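Re: [ENG-882] Designed sequences occasionally contain unexpected residues at chain ends

Forwarding the minimal case from QA. Structure tokens:
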């Protein structure tokens, strides 16, 4: 692994000499001798197989290859320096991690699991808020956001957490009325008001013509699950939102009619070539938690 990495000391000598255009000034900056800088430059040139400098009177000039190489070396050294400083500071000072997450995902799923993250990273103070708006990271209010969308996010770094796999659920008292797909037209359809088209997408997928005109709308999946559990009608809800309710029997799946909606869940961070370690820690944890759902989704599609 990393077999193409040159020696770190050689990279530091090259970056300093290239930026200052002087091996003498580089030796002073790095507190080593002029000969040590020259030796490290030769080591790097031998490693790369081409010259990096043209030696001039009292200064040096970069070759074309070195000009292309320098910004990549500087970016890599900066990333390593920032990550090291961030890591060293974690043990000495608390840090705030500001996260903004979809309301239903926060209430039903994330909050019951947050103690696990806190126990792994006790130095982090988590500022968790809810929202479903377009996130403007330039305001500096959030480090991370989680959103669902039908299209890839733009202007941010993003990681796709999973597709949205929905299941049809209802209260146990309503289940006897739902013995087949056609019976859906005999009960009230509970709708997610910001996604009113989900029932039509589902009906098209299963080959059903919807004729039931009686509907009841709510704004979030959390509210939708409560309405369904109270016996108000049938609902299409992501399975991972309602694991506990399915386990305790307050919601049931009357018949199997799984459906992958056009939406997917994305973890968003500011547009940047590198991330603070506190942000990367949360990303790693989220990918760990979502792994079973991604695998389940992949198996369903296989």
């Amino acid at each position: 692994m990393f077999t193409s990495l040159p020696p770190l000391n050689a990279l530091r000598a090259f970056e300093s000499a290239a930026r200052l255009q002087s091996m003498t000034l580089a030796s002073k900056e790095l507190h080593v001798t002029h000969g040590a800088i020259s030796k490290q430059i030769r080591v790097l040139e031998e490693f790369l197989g081409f010259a990096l400098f043209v030696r001039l009177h009292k200064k040096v000039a970069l070759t074309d290859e070195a000009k292309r190489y320098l910004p990549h070396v500087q970016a890599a050294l900066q990333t390593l320096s920032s990550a090291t400083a961030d890591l060293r500071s974690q043990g000495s000072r608390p840090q705030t991690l500001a996260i903004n997450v979809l309301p239903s995902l926060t209430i039903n799923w994330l909050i019951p699991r947050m103690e696990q993250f806190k126990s792994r990273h006790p130095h982090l103070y988590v500022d968790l808020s809810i929202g479903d708006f377009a996130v403007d990271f330039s305001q500096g209010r959030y480090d991370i956001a989680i959103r669902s969308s039908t299209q890839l996010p733009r202007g941010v770094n993003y990681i796709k957490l999973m597709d949205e796999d929905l299941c049809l659920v209802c209260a146990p008292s309503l289940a006897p009325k739902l013995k087949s797909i056609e019976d859906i037209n005999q009960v009230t359809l509970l709708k997610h008001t910001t996604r009113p088209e989900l029932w039509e997408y589902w009906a098209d997928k299963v080959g059903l013509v919807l004729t039931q005109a009686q509907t009841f709308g709510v704004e979030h999946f959390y509210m939708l699950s409560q309405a369904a559990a109270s016996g108000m009608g049938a609902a299409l809800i992501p399975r991972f939102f309602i694991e506990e309710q399915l386990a305790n029997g307050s919601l049931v799946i009357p018949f199997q009619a799984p459906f992958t909606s056009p939406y997917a869940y994305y973890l968003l961070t500011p547009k940047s070539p590198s991330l603070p370690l506190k942000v990367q820690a949360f990303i790693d944890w989220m990918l760990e938690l979502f792994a079973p759902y991604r695998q389940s989704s992949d198996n369903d599609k296989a």
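QA comment: On inspection the terminal residues look reasonable. Residues 157 and 271 are 5 Å apart (CA to CA). Proposing we downgrade this to a documentation issue.
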